[in-house]
Amino acid sequence: MDKKARLARLQEECAAYFNELYAPDQKVYVFGDGDPQARVMLVGEAPGAQEALLGKPFVGKAGKNLDGFLELMGMERQEIYVSNVVKIRPTARGASGRVRNRAPS
């Protein structure tokens, strides 16, 4: 089994695990994105609000910064693989009842 197939299988297994823990409308699982054969992999801490909405890592403010850095280096996003250590956006409700990011535990 090649690297892409192994990664796809791992992604399916992780998604099944998280779907048992959380209802799909409760938490969005964000695995990784890009070329799994890439020579460069970037790993962030946890998905934010935009990442949870789109189901992809590094698409919010951090993603815009990443795209700018890659451009300066003469690279494109398709040349790297990006992921997070934590796969689900850690949230908490503030005093106003609004959902916000929290530090993962």
Instruction: Please give the count of helices.
Output: 3
| Main β sheet profile | 3 strands, mixed
Class per helix and strand makeup? alpha+beta
- Mean pLDDT over the full residue set: 89
What's the quaternary structure here?
A: single chain
Write the layout of secondary structure elements.
Layout: H1 3-21, E1 32-34, E2 40-44, H2 49-54, H3 61-72, E3 80-84, E4 91-93, E5 99-101
Parallel strand pairs: 2-3
Antiparallel strand pairs: 1-3, 4-5
Kindly describe this structure:
It contains three helices and five strands. By secondary structure, it is of the alpha+beta class. A hairpin with a 5-residue loop joins strand 4 and strand 5 (99-101). The radius of gyration is 15 Å and the shape is flat.
Brief description of this entry?
It contains 3 helices and 5 strands; from the N terminus they run H-E-E-H-H-E-E-E. With 105 residues, it is α+β, with helices and mostly antiparallel strands.
Descriptive tags:
5 strands; flat; alpha+beta; 3 helices; 105 residues; two-stranded antiparallel ribbon
